[in-house]
Design a protein that fits this description.
Length: 500
């Protein structure tokens, strides 16, 4: 008998044998599991989630994931260059990715893999709103750059406060400063990724996958040509092994330590920097019902891109809600339900230099987080009043958002860099993979998982393409370069998802 990561194992410990083991019950594992179940229906799949149901951690709409990120309103995806110009390339890439995601949703609804679309997706205008001459000039340049492209050709722009009042009454209410500008795309969406994850996982289980909640994976180690997972049943406190040919670690912030335990070379040099946050959530139904948009602004100087302020309508479990934030914070936990030892426990000799380099080069981020932590409730309200001048303190409650673990990776020049996107890690033989990072995250789960399948199963992928194209018809096409195909695809998905 011996102890491993706080659990007891012995020669008599039972073993479950699987083709595929999915660690975590969020949108990434749910999406990958759905693809695999369709293209290889004979494979045995197991999913192990630490919490009581799927989608409760990073995919939960109150834990950051709540926008169909398609770069329509998120200004950090189209920053101004040194000469003031705006390169649309990144925004176009993200929007192309979300088009694939929409098609996957449409397939899932049409095949009754998920319930009616209103259970997880709603049409919602996406707006950008800025204050001041420099920001106004930037937003106009951004609009001109993006709207020249097929994917953004419905984007509107205005500097007229009366027009902004029609688009988003709360933004203009009580505003005397008129040096403002806004852009809008009516055809945006709001996605409840928690509800979607839960439905996809339920469908996996109904079709034969072994789904286990309140089961924590404590270790991953090589076992022959595959992997052995040590799993603890949190209810019974019993431990068992899972032997799997392929493992995907979709555990949000918990992915880094598990991939480190696997010992694969590809994770060496990677670290993580956790950023926590808070939101103000509206409790006044009259105020909630007067706002029907996602309104994104500019990030504060020194703030990380994922801290862009937004006055954000969301639909959570089918009910309309309104929030503002996020306000930055810091906790060494890698998950909202994690441990204080997560950050120091992730330090290795292989990632020490990158982590120290990032700490040295990101003092402005540290300063921002400290400043955010010290803000009083009134100061938090003042930040919101830049976007909703008439906001009343009594109408809002403070809630804690989820943890995001930003990727730290080696850099030949700086020693290490802090990334604000997502990073797919895979072993050389493709037998284990995991996802690190955050935004745009959930909204691009479909293309990320399609890319993972191609990377980890290069010999099988060509034989899967026909089935995958039934699920995502424009796979391999660039919609921005084919306006007719884009319009046809959009009309089709809008009709199925009830977005028109």
């Amino acid at each position: 008998m011996r102890f491993r990561d706080g659990v007891t194992v012995s020669a008599a410990t039972p073993t479950l044998t699987l083709d595929v083991a999915l660690v975590g019950g969020g949108i990434m594992s749910a999406t990958l599991g759905t693809f695999l179940q369709q293209i290889e229906p004979g494979w045995s799949i197991g999913l192990f989630e630490n919490l009581k149901r799927a989608g409760l951690e990073s995919s939960d709409p109150w834990n950051n994931a709540g926008t169909g990120h398609s770069a329509l309103c998120e200004l950090n995806y189209s920053p101004a260059g040194p000469d003031g110009s705006v390169d649309p390339k990144k925004a176009l890439g993200i929007n192309e990715q979300f088009q694939l995601t929409r098609q996957f949703y449409s397939w899932a609804v049409s095949q009754s893999v998920v319930k009616e679309p209103q259970s997880f997706i709603h049409p919602l205008p996406h707006m950008s709103f800025v204050i001041g001459e420099d920001n106004r000039r930037y937003l106009k340049t951004r609009h001109d750059s993006l709207s020249a492209n097929t994917l953004f050709d419905t984007m509107e722009y205005t500097e007229d406060l009366d027009q902004i009042r029609e688009w988003a009454p709360l933004v203009s209410e009580g505003r005397t400063h008129k040096n403002v500008a806004a852009s809008r795309v009516v055809g945006g969406t709001d996605v409840d990724f928690g509800a979607l994850s839960s439905q996809l996982v339920d469908s996996l289980a109904a079709k034969g996958a072994d789904v286990r909640f309140e089961h924590r994976v404590t270790n991953i180690a090589r076992s022959g040509s595959g992997w052995r997972l040590t799993v603890k049943n949190k209810v019974s406190a019993q431990t068992f092994f899972v032997d799997a040919k392929f493992v995907f670690v979709g555990a949000g912030g918990g992915a880094l330590p598990l991939l480190q335990k696997s010992g694969i070379d590809e994770i060496k040099g990677f670290g993580g920097f956790p950023v926590s946050g808070e939101f103000l959530r509206c409790t006044n139904e009259e105020v909630i019902n007067r706002h029907e948009a996602k309104v994104y602004g500019q990030a504060s100087v020194g703030a990380p891109p994922m801290s862009v302020p937004h006055l954000d309508t969301r639909y959570v479990d089918g009910k309309k809600a309104l929030m503002f934030g996020p306000y930055g914070g810091f906790s060494p936990k890698f998950l909202k339900t994690g441990k204080l030892w997560d950050l120091p426990g992730s330090v290795r000799t292989s990632n020490l230099v990158p982590m120290l380099a990032v700490a040295k080069d990101n003092l402005d981020l540290v300063k921002y987080l400290v400043t955010e932590l010290m803000k009083t409730r009134n100061q938090q309200m003042e930040a919101m009043r830049e976007y909703y001048p008439a906001a009343n303190l009594q109408d809002w409650e403070l809630i804690t958002a989820g943890q995001r673990v930003q990727v730290i990776k080696k850099d030949p020049k700086k020693g290490g860099v802090l990334q604000f996107g997502t990073e797919v890690i895979a072993s050389a033989d493709g037998s284990i993979s995991g996802l690190l990072g955050a935004s745009p995250g959930a909204s691009t789960a479909t293309p990320i998982m399609l890319g993972l399948l191609k990377r980890c199963f290069p010999n099988q992928f060509a034989g899967w393409e026909d089935k995958l194209k039934e699920m995502v018809p424009t796979l391999g096409h660039t919609l921005n370069q084919d306006s007719a195909l884009y319009q046809q695809t959009k009309e089709s998905t809008d009709r199925v998802l009830h977005l028109a």
